[in-house]
Every structure is written in structure tokens, then in C-alpha cells.
Design brief:
It contains ten helices and 16 strands. By secondary structure, it is of the alpha/beta class. It folds into two domains: about 130 residues, tt1808, chain A (Alpha-Beta Complex); about 200 residues, P-loop containing nucleotide triphosphate hydrolases (Rossmann fold), CATH 3.40.50.
């Protein structure tokens, strides 16, 4: 007699986790985006995605829990390591370092920090929350109780219900790099995955933790500025304002501007508006939306003029290029090469596949 995957979770894994100190407030059962099937040449979305265990650490009762591990459950008669490689892929999307596969009796662990895979162990020996917290802090390079980790512990404005698992993962990936002192970050997220949501809540967490002085969000056209303004004002209220040629909005903490308004849209632009209105290091945080879309040679002036700022590039296509003319593809490749050279490799990737 064997237990199905659902019964293995409910009858074996859940009770074992509870005995090891993983209370329900530390366990989040994340549902992925439903997959797509091609039926008669047309895409059809499946009814639901798959569900993973996401184990989280809570520093104090008021803190946002921080995800640290993922468990892939298998049927009770299957080998405990059967789901490990699959779990590693999902752990990358959830941005957690500890990966587990279990059949309800035994479990296998993969530690991303060390690159080591354990031998099968009884589920009763599963790591307790305090152990995973200690190992997480050691591998990540900072304490969750340090000053730089405060944004991690700041709850989401409006609660967690509105965010998707990969948005939370992208935010945590960025905050983790900022916590160890990195200031240039690139996030790669497919079109439609909510890059503006990520930008808003990333800055909100930093602001609520007391780390934001003034921020600039730059996009490449008016409709994105309007969309971005609505998203920022829904969270920051009047503290977020649009930059216009006749109004640089120096009283607001969050400025939403286009390349064109800043006069950095193309090679013939002189960055006059930017240079006249915002002195060097005016901004503590800068987010460049769709940073593959415009001429690097000009909009990079925004970054070079604020060398002390945390600078984050958001892009949907840092590696591959489809469609367009050969000249357009060459230009995209050059901009992307400059992005990767300046920001480094993406700290988080969520691609269309």
C-alpha cells in the first residue's frame, strides 16, 4: 500500500514538519502559474499550477517571514531523491538556497550555498527553523537582525495576497544583494510578470525600513509613466509624482520620469533637464524600467551622475533577441552587453518559459 502525493503531504510530511517546529505560519504552500498546453495549434491554460512547500523564517511576530527552503513531495513508494532535480529548478524560481525532496519517510537535501547533496535521512531528522536560519545567514553573508536586513522584515503594504511567488523572489533577491553592499543589480522578468509591482514594493520595503531618501523610476514612454505613477501612488500616495518638462517635482520622494523628459532618450540628446534639475547623487535609489529599450550611451548618464545610489535595471530581454531588422538586433545586443557589463549578471531570472 502506498500513499498518493497528496496523502504523503497530508499524512506524513505535514505532521513531521510540525514536530520539527515548522508551524503553519512558517509554511506557505505556493501555487505556481498554470502551465500552457497547445491543443489543435492553440494555447490553452491549465486549470491550476503545481504546489510547493515554501519554508520561511520569522525573526519576530511583526516581521515579514523570509523564504529559505522548498520541499518537493513524492509518493510514499518512490525514491526520496526522485524530485530533487525538479525541486532545484523551482527553488531557483522561488530564490531559496535549501532544496528538499521527500517521500514522507526519507528526505534528500541540496544546499545551494555549498553545492552539496545529502544522503537519504529519516524525515524525523529534518532541520528545525533555528538551524536553517543559522545556515541561511551564514551563506547569505548577513544577519536577519542586522540594520541592512530591515527591508527583508518589512511586511508587504496591503499584505501578501497581492504578490506572486516570483515577484516576492525577485524582491528578496534584490534586497539580499543590497544587504551585503551591492549597488548595481539587474532583474530579468518576462513581459507581463509585474515588473512595476516589483519596483513599487521593493522601494516601499526600503522606505519603511528607513533606507530611502529619494528615488527615481525611469521608463521609456508616456503610457508606462502613467501606469507606473498609478502603481506608485497607490502605495506611496502624494509622495510619488510624475516628472514633466515644466515641473521637476523636487518635493516628492519618488519621481517617475521618461527618458525623453530627462533628455536622455537618444544619442542626440544633451541630458539638459537632468543636469539642470538634479545635482550629483540627488537620488539614493534608481530603477531603470525596460533598460534594454533605449540608447545606453545617453540614459546611462542618469546612473553615472548618481554613483552612490542603489541602481536597479529591469529588463525582459537581456539575452535573446527575436524579430526586428538586423540593425535593430545588433543595437539590442550592444545595449544588453553594456547592461550586463555595468550591472552584472541578473540576480534573478523569470523567463517566458
Amino acid at each position: 500500500m502506498y500513499l498518493s502525493k497528496a496523502d504523503t503531504r497530508a499524512k506524513l510530511i505535514d505532521p513531521a514538519l510540525h514536530r520539527c517546529g515548522w508551524t503553519e505560519d512558517l509554511i506557505r504552500r505556493e501555487e505556481t502559474e498554470p502551465g500552457i498546453d497547445i491543443v489543435d495549434g492553440k494555447p490553452r491554460r491549465r486549470e491550476r499550477g503545481r504546489i510547493d512547500y515554501l519554508l520561511r523564517i520569522r525573526v519576530n511576530i511583526n516581521a515579514q517571514p523570509v523564504a529559505v527552503a522548498l520541499i518537493e513531495a513524492k509518493r510514499s513508494d518512490e525514491p526520496p531523491d526522485k524530485g530533487l532535480e525538479q525541486a532545484k529548478r523551482y527553488a531557483r524560481l522561488n530564490y531559496v538556497p535549501f532544496v528538499y525532496s521527500s517521500n514522507g519517510h526519507l528526505f534528500i537535501e541540496y544546499d545551494h550555498f555549498t553545492g552539496k547533496t545529502s544522503t537519504p535521512q529519516p524525515l524525523e531528522r529534518f532541520p528545525v527553523p533555528e538551524e536553517l536560519r543559522r545556515r541561511y545567514e551564514s551563506g547569505a553573508g548577513f544577519s536577519l537582525e542586522s540594520e541592512t536586513a530591515k527591508p527583508f522584515l518589512t511586511p508587504y503594504a496591503g499584505g501578501e495576497a497581492s504578490r506572486r511567488y516570483y515577484q516576492d523572489a525577485a524582491i528578496r533577491a534584490a534586497l539580499g544583494k543590497i544587504a551585503i553592499g551591492e549597488k548595481r543589480l539587474l532583474l530579468y522578468l518576462a513581459t507581463g510578470s509585474g515588473k512595476t509591482f516589483i519596483a513599487v514594493h521593493l522601494l516601499k520595503k526600503i522606505a519603511d525600513a528607513g533606507g530611502l531618501r529619494r528615488a527615481l523610476f525611469v521608463c521609456d514612454r508616456d503610457e508606462l509613466r502613467t501606469q507606473g505613477l498609478g502603481a506608485f501612488q497607490s502605495v506611496f500616495g502624494a509622495d510619488a509624482a510624475p516628472v514633466a518638462t515644466e515641473n521637476p517635482q523636487k518635493n516628492a520622494r519618488i519621481l517617475i520620469a521618461t527618458y525623453q523628459t530627462l533628455n536622455v532618450a537618444g544619442e542626440t540628446e544633451d541630458a539638459k533637464f537632468l543636469l539642470e534639475n538634479y545635482p550629483e547623487n540627488y537620488f539614493s535609489h534608481i530603477i531603470i524600467d525596460e533598460c534594454h529599450r533605449s540608447a545606453w550611451g545617453k540614459w546611462s548618464t542618469v546612473l553615472r551622475r548618481n554613483p552612490e545610489a542603489v541602481q536597479i535595471g529591469l529588463t525582459a530581454t537581456p539575452r535573446s533577441f527575436e524579430g526586428g531588422t538586423e540593425e535593430e538586433r545588433r543595437e539590442d545586443e550592444e545595449i544588453t552587453a553594456n547592461n550586463l557589463k555595468y550591472f552584472g549578471e541578473p540576480v534573478y531570472e523569470y523567463d517566458m518559459a
